[in-house]
Amino acid sequence: MTMKLHCFGESGNSYKAALALELAGLDWEPVFVDFFGGAARTPEFRDISAMAEAPVLVDGDLTLSQSGAIQQYITDQTGKFGGAPEDKYEVLRWVLWDNHKMSSQAGMTRFLANFLPEQHRSQEVISFMQGRLKAAYATLEHHLEGRKWIVGGALTNADISCCSYLYYPEPFGFDRNEWPNIDAWLTRISTQPGWKHPYDLMPGNPSDRA
């Protein structure tokens, strides 16, 4: 049975789940969530996701939200991206770090700087968030010194989680040229068989709303 991922292209959290599904070679299809049209707040979507958030994975009788949980489900089903047995908690540590320190900050900053109506944008708030992001980039840059992957010797959920917002073209305070270790790591991920850019992997693109 084909898995269904309720998602939208602008969502870095959706990208974590979609990329994991794609790189794992699973049979899945995206179901577009018109987030900017208010779809996530409708009763119909809340029947699928009580948290009113994308992504949501539906696999038969299973309905699962939160990207980290979906990534772990994919690992449990396929044996991929979990790392070596001794790395289990290190992979989890970096997924949780990303969710708290990087993706949450990047998602908010990118939204404030690009998708919020211009008259409502606060440059002070955006600058504050960019400062927090710079600290997260520095942590990741330092960790990647001399490493190909965040944990162990191969791609894991730690990489898939942490890379998610860093491929988006909209300006939000991240320039790959300023972070050579992160830049090389992102290139390494994008050369994995099956990799796709978020706007190619999922429906939903700012140009669709232009």
Overview of the molecule:
With 210 residues, this protein is of the alpha+beta class. It is 48% helix and 9% strand. It is built from 8 helices and 4 strands; from the N terminus they run βαβαββαααααα. Strands 2-1-3-4 form a 4-stranded mixed beta sheet, with helices on one face. A hairpin with a 2-residue loop joins β3 (56-59) and β4 (62-65). α1 runs parallel beside α3 and α4 packs antiparallel against α5. The termini are far apart.
Largest beta-sheet characterization: 4 strands, mixed
Q: Give the N-terminus to C-terminus distance in angstroms.
A: 36 Å
Give the radius of gyration.
17 Å
Major beta sheet, strand line-up: 2-1-3-4
Estimate the helix proportion, in percent.
Answer: 40-55%
Task: Please state the overall shape, judged from the principal axes of the Cα atoms.
Answer: globular
Secondary structure tally, helices: 8
Strand content: 5-15%
